[in-house]
């Protein structure tokens, strides 16, 4: 599971990364927002996502948006508080068939920018918090899905982060890990005509660094 992460890098880093892969990153009103560093992003917080302007042509450009972390599916029509299913994560092995995620997986893929994420080990009351970063990179993106629900509280855009079985670096701490995509993989994940299956795999050995963190 991945139920806390953070983003500390300047947005210009993302602009540069998308420029390298020749996909324009666009912002509302054309201005780069002033994003405060966030060490801890928790479920139900609003956080940045990046999604294609045209889901069938990601090379035409992507947009920066903010959405609620904890996906509420399009078919939920009640109050936000009434959606109780834990949808911060979507398992890669069932995302194509599970009712909550099936439609976003087909039509609404996104990237979730991050610089780190957290996991815990140990018994209740004496847990150790671990902070995971990408070796040799100051930021990365999770594979994500987004959706929009018209609830009784209004229109809600929300997202989830995909997880897969843990790779060698993560396995000592948890049996799952988030799907982490390199910039070279971003276009393929956002391209609905491409097969996303090969991207939904654990990180290779030596690519994730874990260090003890303060709560």
If you had to describe this structure to a student in words, what would you say it looks like?
The chain is mainly β and 215 residues long. The protein has one domain (5-213): SOS response associated peptidase-like (hypothetical protein yedk fold), CATH 3.90.1680.10. The protein contains three helices and 14 strands. The chain has helices at residues 11-20, 99-107, 183-190, and strands at 5-7, 25-26, 38-41, 46-52, 62-69, 89-91, 109-114, 116-121, 128-134, 140-151, 154-165, 176-178, 180-181, 208-213. The strands form two sheets. Strands 2, 4, 5, 6, 7, 10, 11, 12 and 13 form a nine-stranded mixed beta sheet that branches. The protein has a five-stranded antiparallel beta sheet with strand order 3-1-8-9-14, with no helix packed on it. A hairpin with a 6-residue loop joins β8 (116-121) and β9 (128-134). The longest helix is centred in the N-terminal third of the chain and has 10 residues, at 11-20. The protein is globular. 33% of the residues are buried. The mean pLDDT is 94.
Question: Which features characterize this protein?
Answer:
mainly beta, hypothetical protein yedk fold, single chain, nine-stranded mixed sheet, 215 residues, five-stranded antiparallel sheet, 3 helices, globular
Structural class: mainly beta
Which value, in Å, is the CA radius of gyration? 17 Å
H and E string: EHEEEEEHEEEEEEEHE
**Overall geometric form:** globular
Per DSSP, what share of the residues sits in E-state strands of 2 or more residues? 35-45%
CATH class: Alpha Beta
Contiguous helical run count: 3
Counting DSSP E segments of at least 2 residues, the number of strands comes to 14
Mean of residue pLDDT values: 94
- Portion of residues within helices: 10-25%
Q: What's the story with the biggest beta sheet? A: 9 strands, mixed
CATH-scheme architecture: Alpha-Beta Complex
Query: What fold name goes in the CATH topology slot?
Result: hypothetical protein yedk fold
How many domains is the backbone divided into?
Answer: 1
Spans where pLDDT lies below 50 across 5 or more residues: none
């Amino acid at each position: 599971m991945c139920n806390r992460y953070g983003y500390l890098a300047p947005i210009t880093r993302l602009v540069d990364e998308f420029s390298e892969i020749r996909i324009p990153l666009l912002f509302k009103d054309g201005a780069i927002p002033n994003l405060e560093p966030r060490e801890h992003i928790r479920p139900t917080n609003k956080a940045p996502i990046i999604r294609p302007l045209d889901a069938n042509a990601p090379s035409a450009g992507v947009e920066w948006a903010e959405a609620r972390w904890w996906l509420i599916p399009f078919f939920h029509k009640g109050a936000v508080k009434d959606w109780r299913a834990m949808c911060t994560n979507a398992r890669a092995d069932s995302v194509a068939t599970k009712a909550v995620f099936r439609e976003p997986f087909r039509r609404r893929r996104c990237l979730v920018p991050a610089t780190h994420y957290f996991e815990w080990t140990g018994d209740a009351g004496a847990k150790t918090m671990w902070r995971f970063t990408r070796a040799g990179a100051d930021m990365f993106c999770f594979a994500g899905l987004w959706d929009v629900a018209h609830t009784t509280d209004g229109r809600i855009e929300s997202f989830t982060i995909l997880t897969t079985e843990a790779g060698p670096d993560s396995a000592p701490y948890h049996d799952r890990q988030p799907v982490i995509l390199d910039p070279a993989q971003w276009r393929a994940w956002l391209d609905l005509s491409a097969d996303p299956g090969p991207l939904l795999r654990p990180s290779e050995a030596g690519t994730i660094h874990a260090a003890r963190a303060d709560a």
